[in-house]
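Quick entry between incubations.
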Amino acid sequence: MPLERARKIILGIGNPDRGDDAAGRSVAQFLRQQNPRDVEIIEHNGEATSLLAQISGASVALIVDACSAGAPPGTVHRFNVCAAPLPQAQIGLSTHGMGLTEAIELARALRQLPTRCVVYAVEGTQFDIGAGLSPPVLAAIRDVAARIVAELDETP
Amino acid sequence: MARKTIKVGYLARVEGESAFKVVVRNGTVESAELNIFEPPRFFEALLRGRAFSEAPDITARICGICPVAYQMSSVHAIEHALAVQVDAPLRALRRLLYCGEWIESHTLHIYMLHAPDFLGYAGAIDMAREHADIVRRGLELKKVGNEIMTLLGGREIHPINVRIGGFYRTPRRQELIALTDRLTRARDAALETVRWVAQFEFPDHQRDYELVALRHPDEYPFNEGRIVSSRGLDIVPSEYETHFEEIHLERSTALHSRIRERGSYLVGPLARYSLNFDRLSPLVQETAREAGLGAVCTNPYQSIVVRALEVLYACEEALRIISSYEEPDRACVPVEVRAATGCAATEAPRGLLYHRYRLASDGSIEEARIVPPTSQNQSSIEEDLTSFVSSWLDLPDEALRHRCEQTVRNYDPCISCAAHFLRLELDRQ
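Done. Structure below.
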């Protein structure tokens, strides 16, 4: 099934009601408005097994999540997870212990990791309940979106 | 080896944040403590003043893995207060929703959290490298549970379609029938799961627990029944607080439960199974015997087999409910508000979950009481450690620590559900 093989996804992960944790979802929403072709845009809560189901079977997965790695707020980290696992201590922390890092490593172990799988992590600064995005993270949304569009363009 | 302390500062592969400490002196276990440091979340307090109709959605937020259990106990407790009786098809749909949760929650625990203990892996990822097909089977099985929850609950986690009196929307027959093929495959996968876990090696440890579970005249219990125990307790849920009490210990943010007259007790798969074996389907009973279990199982390490049997049961039960489903005339029955108190207990995957609500005449919640299964099992977990560890003292430290962790994971503890305070102000005095 050629259609299945060419499946490209953009995954925006986060909790919409926890301040900068919504960064991934905001990127997904921003990109959706641009109506890009041949790519599926998904917002996700980050639960590992369901994330795994989303990335399995995709040929390209570009994933955006928030992180708290000690860099200045709004910093965008890029990880090619086909080459190496995510740095566990900083990215993909989940309250339920099974999050993005586990989903990616499970996909790798099951040999279901997309041929191209990249994680963009946006450095957040405040994760309060009910808060919106902080100004530096808000400013980073367009930047991440542009980088994702460019990355999609260079992917066959 | 005069004194030895086994300390695990952060317990992995459980839901929530906890640690435990076992102190051994001169070959005997001096103390075993499970410390829950998950921050308390005050759900009971934040329900106060909210409308009765909000309880199912608010309590579903207590747990991302067993939200249906919280919805079901809250909806039944409030319906009990308001003397609401739902129509038969709505009751069947609630049971089906519960099947979905048992499938996804148990399967997650069996494959991702517990099986690695038996097969000698640090976690599911390591196990997946060498047992990819098995892990894929587990993930597929879990997904079917999630699909039931999505269809009936409106979404995969924290469902939003349950209301006092029934549902906001009931599914068309066709929507349910569409699940039949996948559920049939899930039933086969569940059968294979039982056979897979039955071959694991189980430490030969049994304990004389007081087993506590619901018992229904003709069903394996999900949503209703009397609360019974292996030592003769047989009460309706409204008598729960007469027989059970919760105590607060300084070291834990979860309350410890005990039966007033006798102390610790056990809820969950082993209790349900052992008190309701005769309510299981012939296929599940036969599969249990094939897996080497009798009608009663009190070896906590075999809880993984019992969970697999309950997944098999839930798949069969879901198929049965779907095949006999008739679309109801109405999605919910009328509800009349009044000042009243109601309570209910249902069977969360981890065991009995008790809720009580006191409503004012305008339907606002004046008081809420929630007793989750993990806090009921906390004393049993500690007693398991105390009584089993002494026979493992010859093991090297690393192996001993692992055996202790496995012992806690037998319970599939849901730490975040258990961590709550009833009244913080009073506890601090």
